[in-house]
Design brief:
Layout lengths: L1 E4 L4 H10 L5 E3 L17 H16 L3 E10 L20 H12 L6 E12 L2 E13 L15 E3 L11 H7 L1 H16 L1
Parallel strand pairs: 1-2, 1-3
Antiparallel strand pairs: 3-4, 4-5, 5-6
Helix pairs in contact: 4-5
Length: 192
């Protein structure tokens, strides 16, 4: 089965390819000739995921899925949340976002946070959503060189390491995206 993932983020594509079984051929936006900037104007992760998936389905007539992921920090009232990718402003880097979080977290005792991913799948016009959440905490400095985004400062519950300190294989067993993708794959196996 061919399935388009509605992203241009190569890190995300590689992470997802490792999780899908061989029955699913994952295509990127480039593979279908999509060069458009996908809309992300909703105020929830689910809303953005659905919006992106529907855009691809309606404009390219292909079955697809999209995700939106946010880091939610309790003491920051859920920020950066739906704005995680652009927390430090338009055209910001991962480093800019991490710096802004670490600055906001200085002197904070409560460091609890969670990563949340929502995947929206559109097959033949029908929409399904799948959610994955990993609880954890924000470290006070960057640790590790693996992963991307906020991985160097997020330590999942039950581990003594950040996502950036573990291998991709280990992250793919426990991450928020992995949890949501496992639900997606199970749905595809049982319904498609």
């Amino acid at each position: 089965m061919k399935l388009v993932i509605a992203t241009n983020n190569i890190h995300k594509i590689n992470e997802i390819r490792h999780l899908l079984n061989e029955k699913i051929e994952l295509l990127s936006l480039g593979d279908i000739g999509c060069r458009a900037e996908l809309p992300e104007t909703e105020m929830t992760l689910e809303g953005n995921a659905v919006q992106k998936a529907l855009y691809i389905y309606e404009h390219f007539n292909v079955n697809c899925f999209a995700d939106d992921t946010g880091l939610e920090i309790d003491v920051l009232k859920g920020e950066p949340g739906v704005f995680s990718a652009r927390y430090a402003g338009e055209n910001c880097t991962y480093e800019d976002n991490i710096r802004k979080v670490l600055t906001a977290m200085q002197e904070k005792k409560n460091r609890s946070a969670r990563f949340k991913t929502v995947i929206a799948l559109v097959i033949n016009g029908k929409i399904e959503t799948f959610e994955g959440i990993v609880e954890g905490m924000i470290r006070d400095q960057k640790l590790g060189n693996n992963g991307f985004g906020y991985d160097p400062i997020f330590q999942p519950a039950g581990l003594e390491k950040t996502f950036a300190e573990i291998s991709l294989e280990e992250k793919n067993r426990i991450s928020h995206r992995a949890i949501a993708l496992q639900k997606l794959v199970k749905y595809l196996e049982n319904n498609v």
